[in-house]
Amino acid sequence: MELDERKITILKAIIKNYMDTGEPVGSRTISKYVDNKWSSATIRNEMSDLEEMGYIVQPHTSAGRIPSDKGYRFYVDQITLEKDSEAAEVQELMIQRIDRLESVLKKLAKLLAHDTNYAALISGPRYQENKLKFIQLSRVDADKLLIVTVLEGNLIKNSIVHVDDVPNDEELLNMNILLNSNLNGLTIGEINLDVISRMKQQAGSHAGVVDLVLEQVAEVIRADSEDLQIYTSGATNIFKYPELSDNQKASELLQTLEHTELLKDLVDTGDGDGGTGIQVYIGEESPVQAMRDCSVVTANYELGEGIRGTIGIIGPKRMDYEKVLKTLRTLMVQLETAFKKEER
Amino acid sequence: MELDERKITILKAIIKNYMDTGEPVGSRTISKYVDNKWSSATIRNEMSDLEEMGYIVQPHTSAGRIPSDKGYRFYVDQITLEKDSEAAEVQELMIQRIDRLESVLKKLAKLLAHDTNYAALISGPRYQENKLKFIQLSRVDADKLLIVTVLEGNLIKNSIVHVDDVPNDEELLNMNILLNSNLNGLTIGEINLDVISRMKQQAGSHAGVVDLVLEQVAEVIRADSEDLQIYTSGATNIFKYPELSDNQKASELLQTLEHTELLKDLVDTGDGDGGTGIQVYIGEESPVQAMRDCSVVTANYELGEGIRGTIGIIGPKRMDYEKVLKTLRTLMVQLETAFKKEER
DNA sequence: GTTAGCACTCATCTGCTTCGAGTGCTAATT
DNA sequence: AATTAGCACTCGAAGCAGATGAGTGCTAAC
Questions:
Q1: A340 in contact with B at a CB cutoff of 8 Å?
Q2: What's the pTM?
């Protein structure tokens, strides 16, 4: 059977109506929706065909139809086809200043959740290669040193350590030079025993401090590459959609959103394909079990120097794909622009 | 009427039973619970009295009784009286290393939620006086400066700024000395025009950089004192308690837990009274509207140098107060010990 | 090919009944 | 005087029957 013009119109009408109401939609509703262009009986016949073809389903015999995953998929593919040409209209979004990327991302997630009325998710930037760029030791207390570690991509980490034999100012200066000249540009794998023993030798009486510092640096780098940070926002928006908010489902979904490790399949896709790819997972397509009744839209951002992460929207299958896709596309542009500007 | 021995026994029995089951408890249940020491009829009479006195209520005529807020209050007061003498048994909790206080607190909340099966909340440390302790400028790129700001209490903040006229290494060294000698020990209020103009004068050709730095420092301090950080964990645990998990209530509660600003009344109490005070809010006693069906237990931690915050547990009114109080007490001790050790 | 008409299905709603846990009260017992 | 047995009563929960109505599929007419 063919998906002719009329079937497409009807399918779209069903999806649109269902998006609005969340209720199964019947033949008369559609008939009215198309200004009685076709009678309800005709619509019924077409619906019967559409059901046979798998685009719509009946929750039970005497109810209207709702779109199936396949139906949504068709709709989404249509949208992306149509709208890809249309230039993303840039709304004024307030990304004023990237003071701390992390906090900007959190705010962004909040904004996004509030704007769309769906749940938003954002993964903190992962840095492809954790190369050391800069290390600085300073004394902050009589017996404490502050270690500032800057990684490639301007990711900054601090730690404070207690030392027993505190170097004096001049020794500190030398040690900073020592550290930077030996370590800059290295990844953690490249800091081997050879490098370490050479440094210790050069450090002389303060070899112990070198050990401490290296331990901290290793910790910092490891922590960063292991802990994938994922922030969520607006999780409770799901209560706005009856089909998701029965107790069983809501609980499961919210629990999943609370546990970062369950979400990593959503943000881990950025490996191969390029930066701004947008994925739409409808129902069973989702890699996350608890989201089989939802749709998930994810977008990968990439902010130069290999800093990349993922932004996602989680909502009911009847989400407003058009709006979400557009919002995400716009956001990507803005985020990258803002970052470039800051970067200069 | 007097709360005699028997009434107290019965009241406690009702509360204990209700804690286990979450169902209203009847006279026969209690009779069995006390090994038929008294018949159900006697219990009924006593229950009638207890109801009149306001310690228990009937959800409806033909149901058993459940404790009222007043009943819980009595119970909790009893516990704290009895157990205050008992030394808190220190379980081995893994607070290995305070590398970043923030991340430790987050983990703690997670642990706590998991341990108790209630929702946990933790407020990031607030610093009483944001005095500057140390500032350091370094060049990290051809045209970018890293500003590290350490506040009293070893709170470290970083920012990276772009500058057009980058000072050379020697100038940077001088500028660091200039910044530290002028600003150390000052609060933001104390950095007035007088100080600023004096510094600019001394900075000579790089007065612009001073401006940039001061702007960042001000931002850092302001951001820290304004944004009260509150982390929650295990929010979805509330689905384990039927009396909280009907859709309306669960949604409201979860929404509240998502919005930091609604929680600040819970953590803001630390003003007057000393460090380790533990508060128990039962039902209507809670300062937060959405928690009128819950009980909330909060504890204030104080980690020297005026760093203080709050840890809280949110659960059903029939929470295991004994366990929660004990856990929190233990935690406070551990947290302070771990911090002291790190501090040395 | 389209549509009107009609019998049929089935989830939802309403009212009714039954069931039983639990109460309060009274009278008997200790 | 305190305790207890006994009994009538209350009321939510659960189950069932019928009414309702939205929506369908099918057939026959246009």
A1: no
A2: 0.85
Nucleotides of chain C in contact with protein CB (under 7 A) are 2-5, 8-11, 20-26
- Report long-range pairs for B106-114 (Cβ below 8 Å, ≥24 apart): B106/B231, B106/B233, B108/B311, B108/B331, B108/B335, B109/B231, B109/B232, B109/B233, B109/B234, B109/B311, B110/B233, B110/B234, B112/B233, B112/B234, B112/B311, B112/B313, B112/B327, B112/B331, B113/B233, B113/B234, B113/B237, B114/B234
Multiple choice CATH, B91-124+229-343, 3.40.50.720, 3.10.180.10, 3.30.450.40, 3.40.50.300: 3.30.450.40
Q: Does the C-beta of A149 come within 7 A of strand D?
A: no
Residues of A in contact with B144 (CB under 8 A): 154
Classify A184 as helix, strand or coil.
coil
Q: Which of A140, A235, A251 sits opposite B133 (nearest CB)?
A: A140
Give tens-digit pLDDT for A121-158.
999 877 666 788 899 999 888 888 889 988 877 778 88
Q: Residue A93's pLDDT is what?
A: 41
The nucleotide closest to A41 (CA, C1' atoms): C3
Rounded, the Å distance between the CA of B57 and C1' of C20 is 21
pLDDT of residue A211: 86
- Say what percent of chain A tops pLDDT 70: 87
What's the CATH fold of domain B132-226? Enolase-like; domain 1 (3.30.390)
Chain D: nucleotides below 7 Å from protein CB are 3-6, 9-12, 21-27
The architecture of the domain spanning B5-67 is Orthogonal Bundle (1.10)
Q: Which candidate, B296, B220, B260, B281, places its Cα nearest to that of B123?
A: B260
> Smallest Cβ distance to A133: which of B100, B140, B148?
B140
Confidence label for B282 from pLDDT (cuts 50, 70 and 90): very high
B137 to chain A: closest CA residue: A136
CATH architecture of A93-124+228-343: 2-Layer Sandwich (3.30)
Residues of chain A in contact with residue B146, where contact means CB-CB under 8 angstroms, are: 134, 136, 148, 150, 156
- Picking from B100, B158, B235, the nearest residue to A258 by CB comes out as B235
Tell me the per-residue pLDDT of B303-313, one tens digit each, with 9 for 90 and over: 766 678 899 99
| Residue A77 forms contact with B (CB below 8 Å) | no
How distant is C1' of D20 from CA of A241, in Å? 27
Question: B 120-149 residues with CB below 8 A of A?
Answer: 133-134, 136, 138, 140-141, 143-144, 146, 148
Nearest-CA residue to the C1' of C20? B62
Cα–Cα distances in angstroms (integers) from residue A215 to residues A171, A174, A198, A221, B331, in the given order: 20, 19, 16, 10, 28
Q: Which CA distances in Å does B94 have to B101, B110, B173, B234?
A: 14, 12, 41, 19
**Boundaries of every domain in chain B:** 5-67, 91-124+229-343, 132-226
Return the closest-CA partner of residue B327 out of B67, B76, B88, B15.
B88
